[in-house]
Fold this protein.
Amino acid sequence: MARSKKSRKVGQIGVRKDPDFKPSENRKSDSPRPKKHKGKPAGNRHNVEQKKVTGKKSAENKDPRHGSKKPIQLVKAVTPTPTQKKKYATPAQELAALEADQRLTDLLDKLDDDKPLSREQQAYVDEKMARHRILCDLLGIVEDDDDEDDDMDPFNDLDAINIDDFKH
């Protein structure tokens, strides 16, 4: 086969299927080809369409969006709830519940550590301690003092011995 030289002519690469094809007739340079649209435009569900006025008012006011239209509070509303006192069957049960109160225990620990309490916390401690005293009186429970334990200690007598008493 003989070798053919490359040419610099710009021409068609392939052969057209339609020999009567003329690009100038089919294409209009004034208006570009219209774009094909697929689906609905973005944000369509938020655009409320204006419908023609009819005899039904419910159709006018109907919202095309789906779901609940009930407003939702974004910040939790604080409603003061009245504190209801629990009723106990016996004073012993109330005393047990009072001694198991975790908030009271934490506040008493703060007081033991000499940490300051707010007015509300101090009022809570005072109220609960007053109720504790009343319940202890009702049940006949006597508060033990730590001073009594010192009197029972036999080693306290050793310090009281004076050696000069044994010398003649």
About this structure: Residues 82 and 154 are 56 Å apart (CA to CA). The radius of gyration is 48 Å. The helical segments are 23-26, 57-61, 91-99, 102-112, 119-139, 147-151, 156-160. The first helix runs from residue 23 to 26.
